[in-house]
């Protein structure tokens, strides 16, 4: 069933680590049930499916399935899909029609000859979560309210999919992550949370992240491009970064799959740019 699935790791560091994604470049004959079954069999946090002929050159319709459900947007699978397409064509600019909206992707080669894909998200938004949800999430995480950095409010952040942003006071709090999977999975499904974005700010230029993905049957995501874009919007809306700013998110380190996500906001652009490399995973 999975013979036509390409496998890429996105947001790699020197060709290593990153978050694996499945990519099906021609899913025109598949319905949602079949795509869901393939994603479950692949077992990665998401598999991307290009579901129609290009609307015009380098413009594609795309859907994303986690092992247990479809999600409206996935950053690392978008990066993986862009690299897979560019490796097979001369395109250097792509547009994906995602369930969340239009996402553009520019590609170029870095000094190591790797293909870098830079996506521009839909316009992010934030919202204040229900205090009862926050309390229940903290309980499932086995965190206390005092573990949170008071300079960073707890908010829902969305740049195509919904994330709850919780900023920890210490790096050790992230390293000690050990949560109640079933309780958190239920909360995330009930509140349409794709991931929790657990952050520790090493500096204004460098953040560390861990992202439980329990609602979709995945304990933790090694690299979450959609959440990185949402976090860029979160920081911009709170005035914690300038009109033009760049920073890096390190993720997956505690899982043994180090990943590097570059994030930038550009004055006048509603979306947030997120970039990284992707490499083919040998079958």
Number of strands: 17
Shape: globular
As residue ranges, the low-confidence spans are: none
Mean pLDDT: 95
Helical residues, percent: 10-25%
Please, what is the oligomeric state?
A: single chain
- What is the terminal-to-terminal distance? 14 Å
Notes on the protein architecture:
- This protein is an alpha+beta fold and 283 residues long.
- The chain has six helices and 17 strands.
- It has an eight-stranded mixed beta barrel.
- Helix 3 runs antiparallel to helix 5 (181-190).
- It is globular, with a radius of gyration of 18 Å.
- The mean pLDDT is 95.
Short description:
The chain has helices at residues 32-42, 75-87, 131-141, 171-175, 181-190, 225-237, and strands spanning 6-10, 19-24, 47-50, 59-65, 70-71, 93-98, 101-109, 115-120, 125-127, 155-158, 162-167, 195-203, 206-213, 218-221, 245-251, 259-265, 273-280. With 283 residues, the chain is α+β, with helices and mostly antiparallel strands.
Supply the key terms:
single chain, 6 helices, globular, alpha+beta, 283 residues
């Amino acid at each position: 069933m999975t013979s036509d699935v390409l496998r890429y790791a996105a947001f790699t560091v020197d060709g290593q680590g990153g978050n694996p994604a499945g990519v099906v470049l021609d899913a025109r004959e598949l319905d949602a049930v079949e795509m869901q079954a393939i994603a479950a069999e692949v077992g990665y946090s998401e598999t991307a499916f290009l579901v129609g002929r290009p609307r015009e050159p380098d413009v594609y319709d795309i859907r994303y399935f986690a092992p247990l459900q479809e999600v409206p947007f996935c950053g690392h699978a978008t990066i993986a899909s862009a690299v897979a397409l560019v490796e097979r064509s001369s395109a250097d600019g792509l547009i994906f029609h995602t369930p969340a909206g239009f996402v553009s992707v520019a590609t170029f080669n870095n000094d190591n000859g790797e293909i870098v894909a830079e996506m521009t998200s839909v316009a992010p938004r934030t919202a204040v979560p229900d205090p009862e949800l926050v309390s229940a999430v903290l309980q499932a995480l086995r965190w206390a309210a005092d573990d949170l950095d008071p300079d960073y409010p707890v908010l829902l952040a969305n740049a195509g999919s919904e994330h709850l942003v919780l900023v920890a006071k210490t790096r050790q709090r992230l390293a000690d992550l050990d949560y109640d999977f079933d309780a958190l999975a239920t909360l995330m499904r009930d509140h349409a949370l794709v991931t929790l974005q657990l952050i520790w700010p090493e500096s204004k230029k460098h953040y560390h992240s861990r992202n439980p993905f329990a609602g979709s049957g995945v304990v933790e995501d090694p690299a979450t491009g959609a959440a990185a874009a949402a976090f860029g919007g979160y920081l911009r809306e709170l005035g914690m970064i300038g009109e033009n700013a760049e920073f890096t998110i390190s993720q997956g380190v505690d899982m043994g799959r180090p990943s590097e996500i570059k994030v930038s906001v550009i004055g006048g652009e509603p979306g947030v740019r997120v970039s990284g490399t992707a490499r083919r995973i040998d079958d």
